[in-house]
């Protein structure tokens, strides 16, 4: 298909940015990842994500229901790996426990919601965030609103096909990717874990 | 719900918002709670935007507290006031369109039976009187005629409340409401009788003025639907906003109506349902 | 019922040995659904669709489909199909013409709710006076519902597209409904040679837990989950959330291009790519065009064919590239409004090149001479 000149970059892009997929940005093939709208080798994306995370002033992880709940085999291990990654990065965690419209009752200090993720980003002054365990539909909803209204750099660790709405997105990502990301974070920090 | 499914992942307990921690620590799943336990556990309804004194909100709260198996209950709602509360209900629930709730529930119930042949999954329709008795009556009755094993609960506030108080088939004759500026010209529909004729194995009319009775009929209706066939419950739930009475008087208004003979509780149980209910109610 | 083994979809569609049979379009539907590992089918009669769902009923009785019933009308059927899909099963239905219109409110909600439903539309006229005759006007109304739309030329297309439709619809990054359209009577009620797949093979089953939204079964998280909640408070946040949701449906349709290209071998087929004049059309109008093209080429006119297989997503760039070199593009259609010509005009740089016709409707057939006359006119 056509080459896209559209860039998925930190915003704020404006009032109502288009969905990246409708601007020709395509999801990566298996083994690849997507970085600012371009398909790249998975390891390049992992390294770039690690660098973004450690260089961030205030990195925050947004774990969604699929990882917040130990609802099927394999989740607990991923949750532990995510927690270890957050510790290595020095990132805060703000959960996305569900997807219901909560405005204006939401407390942006303790949760994030796909219908208005910008509130949490503005309130907590988040410059880099990482999505994980969020159902793909809601992740894209939120990632696009973030691009439109904030300057936050978004990273999505997706167990399915990935997210072209994120600035960096992994696909088919699981425990290995979380562990690899942690190794890279530690390596880039000069080998020292906190 | 698989046993242990609702467990917070290790290390995430402290970041989970309190309404979820409470649900895990003290929720109703698998507990067989009833309305007598209200106030002692974390309810399924987290918060709701319905009006003060809303009879429908009260009926909904009592209905949710009466579900025999909340951990395996999926609800189908419809457009209306109750749809504003449902995003806050800690059960999988569907809002599709206005009036198609029993058709959605038919597909849902049969599909869940296919996927979980050895497990009970209660499908409960909870919708207003406009959705049930007017726009959706076709699909409500057809689901009964097809003997779908679902429970249909009408929250009867005698008006289209969410769209600004229009007359419905459940409004009383003479009621002056929007779209009936000179008063409603025909009587309130007798849906319990229709339900009985259409093959419902259990039919009841109740109200939140008698919570224990409401709880009993909701529970019976769901248990009968699980085993035998379609069931129908009609819950009289007055609307202070559109009928312009004091929100404090919702329950007393129901009692007054009952005294005046304008509302009565009902229960019809088919022979088969009666035998079934006796067998399980004696066992307990 | 023959024991069926699950096979890789690519094997089934591209490699498995095929045997040729002379069957109707409705029978082609039956044969496709038999191999599609469908959990549930819901039926409602309407001419010219009824026979398809009768035959699906037959294979339900034989055990190939696990659940099947007749609903009370198309709006209810499409609603029941939505309920089944939200419960996590693979579900199929079919309708056409006035039935499509009766059900209409449900279609945009299928896409909005990310339901991978496959529906066959056996197209028929919808206008007053009532007609049961073939006409593709209902497709005009469905263009913006978010449903992916494939248009079959013949029974072979119908058969293959139905199987492909399930595979595309269920991709996590797509996960929206697919409508497979066939021109009523012309395809459904005529016999044609169809190369059929082995009867002992079927598609892999659907995994609802890979869906981009939670399944309504109380077996996955979050449990505090409504599908789909009202986002209708009057504030910017609600508007933005709803807008972003709508854009995500468009995005899902865009993502389907890659999969459709794989399965269909492109959203269009082209014959005589170097042609000066193209006939661009879809459905059975393609077959009529082939006849006109054969005659015109004998006369020495370099005319080619663009067979449009996917209407949504629309092959805008493929058509644009071909149109830029052509002198004219003729768009024959089986409807009064000329929706396909409008679609083509919308995407090409020089809409004046488009001949918006010939059009026949009300059940009339399209003599190739009508198309030939346009070819000759442009050629001069």
Describe the structure in your own words.
The complex is a heterotrimer of chains A (194), B (284) and C (380). Chain A has a seven-stranded mixed β-sheet, sandwiched between helices. Chain A is built from six helices and seven strands, in the order E-E-H-E-H-H-E-H-E-H-E-E-H. In chain A, helix 1 crosses helix 6 (175-188) and helix 3 (75-89) runs parallel beside helix 6. Chain A has one domain: TPP-binding domain (Rossmann fold, 3-Layer(aba) Sandwich), CATH 3.40.50. In chain A, a hairpin with a 2-residue loop joins strand 1 and strand 2 (38-41). Chain A is an alpha/beta fold and 194 residues long. The model of chain A has no long low-confidence stretch (mean pLDDT 94). Chain B has a seven-stranded mixed β-sheet, sandwiched between helices. Chain B has helices at 18-26, 55-66, 81-85, 101-115, 129-135, 137-145, 191-197, 211-227, 240-243, 250-259, 271-283, and strands at 73-77, 92-95, 122-128, 151-156, 202-206, 231-236, 266-269. The longest helix of chain B has 17 residues, at 211-227. Chain B has eleven helices and seven strands. Chain B has a single domain, classed as 3-Layer(aba) Sandwich (Rossmann fold), CATH 3.40.50. Chain C is α/β, with parallel strands linked by helices. In chain C, 39% of the residues lie in helices and 19% in strands. Chain C has 13 helices and 17 strands. In chain C, helix 12 (339-347) links the parallel strand 16 and strand 17. The mean pLDDT of chain C is 97. The interface between B and C is large, with 46 and 43 residues. Strand 2 (92-95) of chain B pairs parallel with strand 11 (225-227) of chain C.
């Amino acid at each position: 298909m056509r080459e896209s000149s559209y860039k998925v970059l930190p915003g704020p892009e404006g009032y109502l940015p288009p969905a990246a997929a409708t601007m020709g940005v395509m999801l990566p093939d298996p083994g690849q990842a997507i970085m600012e709208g371009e398909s790249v080798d998975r390891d390049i994306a992992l390294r770039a994500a690690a660098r973004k995370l450690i260089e961030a002033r205030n990195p925050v992880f947004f774990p969604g229901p699929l990882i917040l709940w130990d609802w099927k085999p394999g989740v607990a291990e991923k949750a532990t790996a995510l927690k270890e990654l957050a510790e290595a990065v020095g990132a805060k965690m703000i959960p996305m426990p569900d997807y219901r419209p909560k405005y204006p009752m939401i407390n942006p200090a303790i949760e994030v919601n796909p219908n208005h993720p910008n509130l949490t980003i503005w309130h907590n002054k988040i410059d880099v965030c990482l999505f994980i365990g969020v159902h793909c539909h809601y992740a894209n909803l939120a990632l696009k609103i973030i691009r439109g209204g904030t300057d936050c750099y978004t990273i999505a660790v997706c167990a399915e096909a990935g997210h072209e709405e994120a600035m960096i997105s992994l696909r088919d990502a699981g425990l290995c990717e979380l562990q690899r990301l942690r190794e890279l974070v530690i390596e880039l920090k000069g080998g020292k874990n906190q | 719900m698989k046993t242990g499914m609702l467990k917070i992942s290790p290390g995430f307990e402290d970041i989970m918002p309190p309404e979820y921690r409470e649900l895990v620590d003290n929720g109703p799943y698998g507990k067989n709670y009833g309305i007598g336990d209200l106030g002692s556990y974390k309810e399924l309804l987290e918060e709701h935007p319905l009006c003060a004194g809303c009879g429908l909100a009260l009926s909904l709260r009592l209905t949710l507290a009466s579900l025999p198996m909340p951990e395996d209950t999926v609800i189908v709602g419809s457009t209306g006031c109750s749809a504003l509360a449902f995003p806050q209900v800690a059960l999988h629930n569907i809002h599709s369109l206005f009036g198609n709730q029993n058709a959605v529930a038919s597909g849902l119930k049969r599909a869940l039976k296919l996927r979980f042949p050895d497990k009970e999954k209660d499908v409960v329709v909870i919708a207003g009187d406009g959705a049930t008795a007017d726009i959706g009556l076709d699909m409500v009755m057809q689901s009964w005629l097809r003997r779908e094993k679902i429970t249909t609960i009408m929250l009867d506030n005698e008006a289209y409340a969410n769209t600004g108080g229009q007359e419905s088939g459940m409004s009383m004759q003479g009621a002056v409401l929007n779209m009936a500026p000179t008063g409603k010209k025909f009587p309130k529909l007798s849906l319990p009788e229709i339900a009985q004729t259409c093959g419902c194995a259990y039919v009841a009319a109740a109200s939140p003025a008698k919570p224990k009775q409401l709880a009993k009929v909701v529970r019976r209706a769901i248990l009968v639907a699980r085993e035998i066939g379609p069931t129908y419950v009609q819950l009289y739930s007055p609307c202070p906003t559109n009928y312009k009475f004091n929100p404090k008087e919702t329950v007393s208004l129901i009692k007054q109506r009952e005294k005046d003979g304008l509302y009565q509780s009902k229960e019809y149980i088919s022979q088969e349902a009666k035998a079934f209910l006796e067998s399980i109610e004696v066992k307990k | 019922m023959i024991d069926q083994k699950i096979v890789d979809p690519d094997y089934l569609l591209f490699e498995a040995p095929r045997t040729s049979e002379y069957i109707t379009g409705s029978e082609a539907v039956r044969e496709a659904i038999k191999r599609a590992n469908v959990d549930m089918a819901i039926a409602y009669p309407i001419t010219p669709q009824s026979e398809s769902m009768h035959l699906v009923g037959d294979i339900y009785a034989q055990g190939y489909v696990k659940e099947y019933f007749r609903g009370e009308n198309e709006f209810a059927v499409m609603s029941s199909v939505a309920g089944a899909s939200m419960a996590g099963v693979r579900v199929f239905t079919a309708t056409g013409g006035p039935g499509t219109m009766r059900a209409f409110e449900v279609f945009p909600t299928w896409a909005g709710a990310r339901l991978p439903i496959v529906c066959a539309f056996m197209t028929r006229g919808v206008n007053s006076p009532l007609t049961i005759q073939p006409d593709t006007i209902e497709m005009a109304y469905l263009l913006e519902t978010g449903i992916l739309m494939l248009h079959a030329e013949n029974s072979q297309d119908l058969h293959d597209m139905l199987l492909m439709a399930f595979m595309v619809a269920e991709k996590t990054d797509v996960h929206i409904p697919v409508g497979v359209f066939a021109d009523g009577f012309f395809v459904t009620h005529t016999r044609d040679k169809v190369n059929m797949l082995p009867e002992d093979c079927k598609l892999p089953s659907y995994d609802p837990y890979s869906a981009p939204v939670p399944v309504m079964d109380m077996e996955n998280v979050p449990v505090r989950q409504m599908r789909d909640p009202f986002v209708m408070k009057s504030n910017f946040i609600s508007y933005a959330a709803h807008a972003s949701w709508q854009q995500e449906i468009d995005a899902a349709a865009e993502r389907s291009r890659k999969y459709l290209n794989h399965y269909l071998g492109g959203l269009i087929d082209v014959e005589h790519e170097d042609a000066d004049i193209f006939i661009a059309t879809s459905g059975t109008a393609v077959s009529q065009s082939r006849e006109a093209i054969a005659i015109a080429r004998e006369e020495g006119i370099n005319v080619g064919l663009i067979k449009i297989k996917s209407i949504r997503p629309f092959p805008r760039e493929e058509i644009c590239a071909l149109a830029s070199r052509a002198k004219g593009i003729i768009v024959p259609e089986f409807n009064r409004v000329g929706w396909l010509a409008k679609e083509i005009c919308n995407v090409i740089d020089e809409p004046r090149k488009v001949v918006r016709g010939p059009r026949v409707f009300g059940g009339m057939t399209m003599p190739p001479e009508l198309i030939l006359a346009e070819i000759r006119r442009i050629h001069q």
